[in-house]
Amino acid sequence: MSKEEARIIEQVVNGNAAAFEALVESYQSRLFNSLIHSLGCPEEAEDVVQEAFVKAFSKLKTFKQNSSFYTWLYRIAINIAISRHRRKKPKSSLDEYRMSVGHEPVDESNHPSKNLDLEERAAQVQAALELLSEQHRAIIVLREIDELDYEAISELLDLPVGTVRSRLHRARNQLRTYLEQVVIEK
Asked: Are residues 52 and 104 in the same domain?
């Protein structure tokens, strides 16, 4: 943790609530970008980010500072996202699909040989990510989208590096399988 981060945290713990704004400004976009890839829904990602900062603020006195603030905040956010996911019913309506993916489902049956453009591929990858388990999705997002190294992922998820490597390997294989199925279906 940086000295500046430690100083800000100390100020907040000592009663200067306004100092917390500096932490929010530093990490809000980064956390949102990580969560949007994991959750697939901008509104849900915004809600989780907001809830994570509120919880972090209220629990800041319990932060042991043996990791970075972002690592601690990310763990809070992932736990919130997992809790929300468990409470949520499976998506089944077109309206919910439209909201989560951001567009109408497209029937490509008239053009089976047409190459997929970038937007379609992104939608397919997002749909395949949603099929992964929460732990595999988190590892894929942290490694491939956030471009974190194995040690940083290990620290964020509180897992041994070997476990991160094996889960990442399994997650990539599952993602590849899901994407192959989507391409074959087209």
From this structure: no
Number of domains in the chain: 2
CA separation for the pair 111, 152 (Å, rounded)? 43
Tell which residue, 73, 87, 92, 106, has the closest CA to residue 44: 87
Per the CB < 8 A criterion, the answer to whether 69 and 57 are in contact is no
Residue 75 and residue 8 share a domain: yes
- Tens digits of residue pLDDT in 147-184: 788 888 888 888 899 999 999 999 999 988 888 876 65
State pLDDT tens for residues 66-95.
Answer: 778 888 898 899 888 877 766 665 545 556
Answer yes or no: pTM beyond 0.90: no
Host domain of residue 108? 94-185
114 and 59 in one domain? no
How far apart, in whole angstroms, are the C-alpha atoms of residue 156 and residue 92?
Answer: 32
Q: Which residues touch 11 (CB under 8 Å, ≥6 apart)?
A: 19
Identify how many contiguous H helices and E strands the chain contains and give both numbers. 9, 0
